[in-house]
Design a protein that fits this description.
The chain is an alpha/beta fold. It folds into three domains: 62 residues, Nucleic acid-binding proteins (OB fold (Dihydrolipoamide Acetyltransferase, E2P)); 150 residues, Rossmann fold (3-Layer(aba) Sandwich); 54 residues, Ribonucleotide Reductase Protein R1, domain 1 (Orthogonal Bundle). The protein is 25% helix and 24% strand. The strands form three sheets. A six-stranded mixed sheet has the order 10-9-8-11-13-12, sandwiched between helices. A five-stranded mixed barrel has the order 1-2-3-5-4. A two-stranded antiparallel ribbon has the order 6-7. Strand 1 and strand 2 form a beta hairpin. Helix 2 packs across helix 9. The protein is globular and about 70 Å long. About 4% of the residues have low confidence. Bound molecules: guanosine-5'-diphosphate and zinc ion (ZN). Zinc ion binds next to loops. The site of guanosine-5'-diphosphate has 16 residues, from helix 5.
Length: 291
């Protein structure tokens, strides 16, 4: 008789899936049933495995529980938090780019934490106030000096986390600082090399501490594509979280907060709506062709 266990896929290479269950790691093969249904098990999947050898820590993966979300790059499911990382300098802070990343997080339905790295450089907190006002949690870090890491770690507890954000902001440095055993390459050169290696790179989920309850982090930063071409204007309006509660007050139910009269979002520019966030929105709105 085999014993079933509930677990989490943390690694998958060549059809062998490493499943963490009851703080132990089992190497599992996937049943043919997934091939028939064209479902590929993903890291982040919550699964049920049948233990085939407790001694050798082997099992067979037979059930994938429903996914709450999934990212395409890196391929990972069930994310609890995306840590959108920006730098204060080198590269200099680009509000429009942060807004796009935040929209992607909203689109994927993954709560975002903003991590402002390179806080050792000169910068003004005021650039980040609009995000705090919009309701986003925010931490300041200096990855290279391990500053702010306790605060960051505290916000990652009990969650499956993934880093995202522009190149060069310090994502790999942060991942290394949080999980020194990983020893990821950092710096512009390694980024280029990494891109070339994309086909062979397998992402993994790592435990942030000694037990599962301390939370997890994906070793590969995600979300590099900023494509939101597939959405329409109404949907875009829903991705700016501070617009959502105001939109109920717009005269027209299908208001996209642009040229309509009686727009409650536009009425709040300078108040609940930050002018730069609104400007980002208008820019993105201009890029949408399908209605
Ligand atoms: P990634 O492309 O987002 O993964 O960025 P990296 O982690 O590769 O970092 C890019 C460069 O920024 C590297 O040279 C890092 O040493 C440097 N860096 C990372 N974090 C900090 C920081 O907090 N302060 C400063 N001054 N430099 C940092
Ligand atoms: Zn409106």
């Amino acid at each position: 008789m085999t014993v079933d266990k509930h677990g989490l896929i943390i690694k998958g290479v060549g059809g062998a899936y490493t499943v963490l269950a009851d703080e132990k790691r089992y190497v599992c093969n996937a049943r043919g049933v997934f091939r028939n249904t064209k479902t590929t098990p993903l890291i982040g999947d919550k699964v049920i495995i049948a233990i085939t050898s407790e001694e050798k820590k082997l099992g067979t993966l037979h059930t994938i529980k429903p996914r709450k979300n999934r990212l395409r790059r890196p391929p990972v499911s069930n994310l609890d938090q995306v840590i959108i990382t920006v730098a204060t300098a080198q590269p200099s802070f680009n509000a429009g780019l942060l807004d796009r990343f935040l929209c992607l997080a909203e689109l994927e339905g993954i709560p975002a934490l903003i991590c402002v790295n390179k806080a050792d450089k000169n910068f003004s907190d005021e650039s980040f106030l609009p995000y705090i006002n919009a309701g986003y949690p925010l931490v300041y870090t200096v990855a290279t000096e391990s500053r702010g890491l306790d605060d960051l770690r505290m916000r990652m507890v009990g969650k499956i986390n993934v880093f995202a954000g522009p190149s060069g902001v310090g994502k790999s440095s942060l991942i290394n600082a949080l999980m020194p055993k990983l020893n990821l390459e950092t710096g512009a050169l390694s980024i280029k090399l990494d891109r070339g290696k994309h086909t062979t790179r397998h992402s993994e989920i790592f435990m942030l501490g000694k037990s599962e309850s301390e939370g997890f982090c994906v070793d590969t930063p995600g979300f590099t594509s900023l494509d939101i071409d597939t959405i329409n204007k109404r949907e875009l309006a829903g991705l700016f979280r501070e617009f959502v509660p105001l939109a109920a007050g717009c005269r027209f139910a299908d208001c996209v907060h642009h040229q309509e009269i009686g727009c409650a979002v536009k009425a709040e520019i300078g108040g609940a709506v930050n002018p730069e966030r609104y400007e980002s929105y208008i820019k993105m709105l201009g890029g949408i062709i399908n209605g």
